[in-house]
Design goal:
The complex is a heterodimer. Chain A is mainly alpha-helical. Helices cover about 65% and strands about 5% of the residues of chain A. Chain A has a domain at about 540-705: Cytochrome Bc1 Complex, Chain D, domain 2 (Orthogonal Bundle). Chain A is built from 27 helices and four strands. Chain B has one domain (about 1-50). Chain B is about 60% helix and about 0% strand. Classes of the chains: A mainly alpha, B mainly alpha. At the A-B interface, helix 2, helix 7, helix 8 and strand 4 of A face helix 1, helix 2 and helix 3 of B.
Chain lengths: ~700, ~60
């Protein structure tokens, strides 16, 4: 403080009301997200729990589970923590109470919209970005409101220096905005249907650049910010090394953005991009572990309290799981390990170690710390909190260990080749049957975690109920001196850097954009240098309609469309998938998990009748199948009329449909459907199916792997 | 595909530039963060989360 007038003490109040709302929303959505997780886990253990009902089927509930866990549960938690800690670190009330309320209610409305649309099959099928364009616009609006509110608070702050937690918050706000907008760009067909502007390999790269950095900047950087604030608070002493936290921040922001392509190893993505993603993923272990060690060492000297204090216990376990997940991630990003682990349950185990262990336990620790503080009371029961810890901990272990075993077992079985050069387990279902007991262990582990969280919910509600009515407490702090630009020239640039949120924000944005642009641009320009080696025809109208049904039912949640150039895969699924195969797929359907077999070369493998009977009851064709039945596909009618508009949108995205094709699109689709239906009718299928969804889906499935068209 | 891409890769200096840029930023950041004069600054920064406790700001 240089000038005297700035030392005047100002009195202000924190806006704790909005923090309380976000805290309670965290508890509510936590229960919902975990309950949905248990439901889908049970559905994988026994197909009957899909109840033959469209909106309860795994393919529709799984996206709801992931969205609820990431954006509703973790989302509300980080907002609660950010609004609570930022006001205190910046010594200022949030910039605008109105914006805070719009942020809170807007976000809850988006969650409710997701909970309604996803089970109805309204989805764009981009993982963790499934929501359709009107909801995407709402997310953008609420995020901008949040950003303005946050920046406004920084401007009116009374603390000159920005603590490192604030840096992590800024990186979160800036990067999530970039990721969301770039990945969600789409052309609407109708109010609830749009096509991504990216197709095939380009879409895959953009999608996993988004997908991985949603993990990085929604589930990691904000939580690291929370860690740098709450772990010192809970331990009662400052962070182990502030210097390390600065290096942690910059190296994380620089490196994380590059790692996305590790989701696409051995796919049709250009190999240089795969290698780039792998190298940066392996490098990530350094900043990640730096941060973890910094957090754990903050508890130096007070380890004895970990034994009794549930808050420290949750923090220590969360940091340990963070260390584990950020070791496993780079490991899985090594190409030869990805060859084994990708598409299997190992990946599921990996992400749940991260979300349940790191995010879930960080959230629990934060709730146990903040709720009593902000309601000015004591935690209702430390004993219950400790019970929650052990029940939840056991749940995670059962979950993660069972998925490790399931993933490695299946990975090894699928790649196993006999000395005669044949697949040791030619039937995919042979490998699935082995996993069922492990799926039950997983469902049990998930249930335990849910029970632990319900105990938290009870504990928190009792804590809130016992809180005395209290008026907000007045705070005082000296106003902030105006920054003198001349100081910038006189050394100590760093402290001025922190003092200038705008410059800092721009630098963070640059760090993120440099990586993104170098990685994504060459692939977006791919058509400039990849000569097409085969003739690729656009989808015929009925195939296009069938593809939309494939998207709607969430088939990509269990089936991939990407045969990797590995001996065992080519033996099992046929020719490797190339970029041309999905060049008209807006967005791509490569998938990330094979609960069932890959479908890239499915076309022509089975007759139409096989597909018809298989969709209505998979057990008829494959007795041990765990796939849900889709009886409504033979009841729901195809939207033939809609195909013209869809083809028009596809054409504006670059699909070479002729004007005549578009003009006669509807009748072409109807003729195609009649042709399939009359063929089926000769085999005893009722002729009424000619206008039902199942016919369109069959047309699409028979097209897979036949990019040159079906004749 | 790799050879196709590399054959049309017209910016061979880009990878060198990237290496130098990243290496310089990283080494520079470490050197700057661990400079001796920073000790007290960082010590006071690390105390920021506690500025609302232990008196001082509360009435």
């Amino acid at each position: 403080m240089t000038s005297t007038e700035s030392n005047k003490l100002e009195t202000f109040y924190y806006d704790d009301g909005v923090v309380k709302k976000f805290l309670l929303a965290t508890v509510l959505w936590g229960v919902v997200a975990l309950l949905l997780g248990v439901v889908v886990a049970v559905q994988l253990s026994d197909w009957r729990f899909n109840f033959n009902t469209s909106w309860l089927t795994f393919g529709r509930l799984r996206p709801l589970h992931t969205n609820a866990a990431i954006f509703a549960f973790a989302g509300n938690a980080i907002f609660a923590g950010m609004y609570h800690s930022s006001q205190r670190l910046l010594k200022a009330r949030m910039f605008s109470d109105l914006l805070s309320q719009i942020h809170f209610w807007g976000w809850q409305l988006i969650i409710v919209a997701a909970a309604i649309t996803l089970p109805l099959g309204i989805t764009v099928s981009k993982e963790y970005a499934e929501l359709e364009w009107p909801i995407d616009l709402a997310i953008t609006f609420v995020w901008v409101v949040f950003a303005v509110n946050f920046v406004g608070t920084m401007i009116k702050r009374r603390e000159k220096h920005m603590y490192v937690a604030i840096w992590f918050y800024i990186a979160t706000i800036v990067t999530v905005a970039v990721l969301h907008v770039v990945n969600s760009i789409a052309l609407p067909v109708s109010f609830w249907k749009s096509y991504s502007v990216y197709a095939g390999v380009q879409d895959a790269l953009v999608q996993w650049w988004y997908g991985h950095n949603a993990v990085a900047f929604f589930l990691t950087t904000p939580f690291l910010g929370l860690m740098y604030y709450y772990v010192p608070k809970a331990a009662g002493q400052p962070v182990y090394s502030y210097r390390l936290s600065i290096i942690h921040f910059w190296s994380l922001v620089f490196i994380y953005i590059w790692a996305g392509p590790h989701h696409l190893l051995y796919t049709a993505l250009p190999e240089w991009a795969q290698t780039l993603g792998m190298v940066f993923s392996v490098m990530l272990i350094a900043p990640s572990w730096g941060g973890m060690i910094n957090g754990l060492l903050t508890i130096r000297g007070v380890w004895d309290r970990v034994r009794k204090d549930p808050i420290l216990k949750f923090f220590v376990a969360a940091l340990t799981f963070y260390g584990m997940a950020t070791f496993e991630g780079p490991l899985l990003s090594v190409k030869s390990i990805s060859a084994l682990g990708h598409y299997t349950d190992w990946i599921i185990g990996h992400v749940h170690g991260g979300t349940l262990g790191w995010n879930g336990f960080m959230i629990a620790a934060m709730l146990y710390y903040v709720v009593p503080k902000i309601w000015k009371t004591r935690l209702y029961s430390e004993r219950l909190a400790n019970i929650h810890f052990w029940v939840g901990f056991l749940g995670i272990l059962m979950y993660v260990v069972s998925m490790w075993i399931a993933g490695i077992t299946q990975g090894l079985m699928l790649r196993s080749i006999t000395p005669a050069g044949q697949l040791a387990y030619p039937d995919f279902i042979e490998t699935v049957v082995r996993l069922i007991p492990l799926y039950w262990v997983r469902a049990t582990g998930g249930t335990l975690y849910l029970v632990g969280f319900l105990i938290l919910g009870y504990n928190i509600l009792r804590t809130v109920a016992q809180a005395p009515k209290s008026a907000p407490e007045a705070q005082t702090a000296p106003a902030l001196a105006k920054l003198n630009p001349n100081d910038l020239l006189k050394g100590r640039p760093h402290r001025h850097l922190e003092a200038m949120p705008a410059v800092f924000t721009v630098l963070t944005l640059l760090a993120v954009l440099v990586g993104s642009i170098i990685e994504i641009m060459p692939t977006l320009m791919a058509h400039n240098y990849v000569g097409l080696t085969q003739k690729t025809l656009p989808y015929r109208p009925l195939e296009l309609l069938g593809r939309d049904i494939y998207v709607k039912e969430g088939c990509y949640t269990c089936h991939s469309q990407m045969v990797r150039p590995l001996p065992s895969e080519v033996l099992r699924y046929g020719k490797r998938t190339t970029a041309e195969d999905s060049m008209y797929d807006f967005p791509h359907q490569w998938g990330s998990k094979r609960t069932g077999p890959d479908l890239a070369n499915l076309g022509g493998k089975f007759p139409d009748l096989w597909h018809y009977r298989h969709m209505l009851d998979p057990r008829e064709m494959s007795p041990k199948s765990i796939m849900p039945a889709y009886p409504w596909l033979a009841i729901e009618k195809v939207d033939f009329k809609g195909v013209t508009k869809k083809m028009k949108v596809m054409k504006s995205l670059g699909v070479p449909y002729s004007e005549a094709e578009i003009q006669y699109g509807e009748s072409l689709a109807r003729d195609h459907a009649k042709q399939i239906a009359s063929q089926l009718a000769t085999q005893g299928v009722p002729a009424t199916v000619e206008d039902r969804e199942i016919v369109a889906l069959i047309a699409y499935l028979q097209r897979l792997g036949r990019a040159g068209g079906v004749q | 595909m790799k050879s196709e891409v590399l054959s049309s890769f017209s910016m061979p200096w880009l990878s060198g530039l990237g290496l130098i840029l990243f290496f310089t930023v990283f080494v520079g950041a470490i050197g700057w963060v661990f400079r001796r004069s920073g000790r007290d600054v960082y010590a006071s920064m690390a105390e920021l989360p506690f500025s609302d406790e232990n008196g001082g700001n509360k009435i």
